[in-house]
Amino acid sequence: MKRPFNLFLVLAVMIGFGQQTTSINHAQDVTITIEKGKKESKAKSKAPFTGKRPAVDVAILLDTSNSMDGLIDQAKSQLWNIVQEFAKAKKNGRTPELRVSVFEYGNSGLPAREGYIRQVIQLTDDLDKVSEALFALRTGGGDEYCGAVINEAIKRLDWSGQANAYKAIFIAGNEPFTQGSVDYKSACRNAIESGIVVNTIHCGDYQRGVQGKWKDGADMAEGEYMNINQDEKVVHIQCPQDKIIIELNSQLNETYLWYGSKNERTRYAENQVAQDLNASSLGGLSSRAATKAGSLYRNVGRDLVDTFEEDEEAILQLKADDLPEELRKLTPTERLKKVAAISKLRAEIKAKLATVSKERQAYLAAERAKMTETPAAATLGDAFAEAVEEQLVESGFDLSDE
């Protein structure tokens, strides 16, 4: 019987070219800045994360060496399908708080002294930020040290301290799991002793991955071993519902009341639209919109409506300068009334989106059933789907429909 674990999606993202700086903010207001060619600044020691909702923490570690362009493309195009794998999960009737982290490893553009490893983004519930990080990835040849990047993910992230939380690392790559000075066996033992399951995804032949110890690593950390074709193109089928979904998505965006400094408000709004465009460029906007209509796309601490639904008193504590312009001159009572009205409108739009998205899924299923070609090879999204359902159930989550 596998022991319970929390699901932390650590996205291990490899970014190789250019002088880039990545700043990561998460729920505990700790910022880590990682600059190419320089050592990572020391972060404050992280206390275990605690939240109001059941914890699902996912850490994805992506090999971004030269041969992995296809893997990164799959991660970009399938992010919102992957998120939807968790959308039905509930514990004691409560939707979980999904946080995702991204690491890259194996990229020669990263400092050798740091093991060609970069934490791209700390565990965060800001899924737009995760998408932004994935679309910034670049590949470059290097050495892939699986044991080392697993250890870094364990140490650097503020994994949930909740009992029976779901915490998981998903690591994908194509070179032997044994490379580097950090023993993969030690790293995988460290993970499961911390309640973190390790799922391994070998990009290539199944048996070659077994020989390269990818299966052994998963077995040691009570995870799943899977193999995929990282160069398999993700096929997107146009559906008659897509136009309606795109229109409803635009309406949904209008209901967001971003707060914080002026720069923060602008950044949140612009990034939401930018990630819509990124998803659209790969044929995935309908999947993203379906995710936004669900309960996992939440912006508590950034958007007044989501924050209001979590704790309406919290928005009364905000400074006027941190509010959207249209709310600054309102009394506290008027402010709550305004946010409540927009919350109701958002719920109506989400309900329409959910209905049309289900119709789209039915259409997709029928179209795929007509296809007589040889079944497509497994992709990154397929690997997630294979692993998470059983693992969530073992951590005490229900997977009934929303």
TrEMBL record:
It holds the Pfam family VWA. Residues 57-205 form the VWFA domain. GO terms for cellular component: cytoplasm. Gene3D superfamilies: von Willebrand factor, type A domain. It comes from the Bacteria. SUPFAM superfamilies: vWA-like. One of its GO terms (molecular function) is protein serine/threonine kinase activity. This is VWFA domain-containing protein.
